[in-house]
Amino acid sequence: MNRMFKIIINLSYLLSVLSVFIGGNLFPQTQTGVGEGVQNRKEFVKLQESAQVKILLKYASTDNFMKENLYGEFNTCYLHKEAFEKFQKAVELLKESKTGRKFILFDCLRPRSIQYKLWEKVKGNAKEPYVANPEKGSIHNFGFALDLSLLEEDGKELDMGTSFDDFSQLSEPDLEEEFYKKGKLSPSQFANRKFLRNILLQAGFEQRPNEWWHFDALSSKIVKKRYKMIE
Known about the structure:
By secondary structure, the chain is an alpha+beta fold. The protein has a single domain, classed as Muramoyl-pentapeptide Carboxypeptidase, domain 2 (2-Layer Sandwich), CATH 3.30.1380.10. Helices cover 33% and strands 12% of the residues. Strands 2-4-5-7-6 form a five-stranded mixed beta sheet, with helices on one face. The chain has a two-stranded antiparallel ribbon with strand order 1-3. The protein is globular, with a radius of gyration of 20 Å.
């Protein structure tokens, strides 16, 4: 009886371990931070830097509106493979533009555990509209969103009129025409935003209406219907 009991306990432990890798939390919280195990998920692709892509994850540093490294050692950009395929097309289109420019990626797949931290910082204040409520989820939480900008051939970031995560009306694509006419966006800033947007739209992305840097590979409605959030 004791031997049988031990076997049952061992089997239960094994099943609990397997559940983490098969269907459990993609980003288990450990002392080393988030991100363990994601490389084993076939539906996600790890992005690499190249001649057309630089990766500088803002939430893996203190250079963000939280002033806090939220990702720890998870300094890696992952996308769902469907989003990755569209981004590959965007890279090809950028190369074909012969401008010498390259993408700089600020954020990719973001676990919902991090989304909660962002939400706690903004809920109830003027920045709240710029951060998705984690109860509903951001498209970042599914691996279908990218935050990005462009670098010139000399490595200098293009002037878009605001910085990443500016969280002001000046950062909103829907208000660009108005700000351009008022002189609050210069002709070059206005043109830079249009250039970035045109490349991503041609590749099949959609732009978030209040953030010039945020693009979704599929609509929110489709993503939330077909896929599960990464916790």
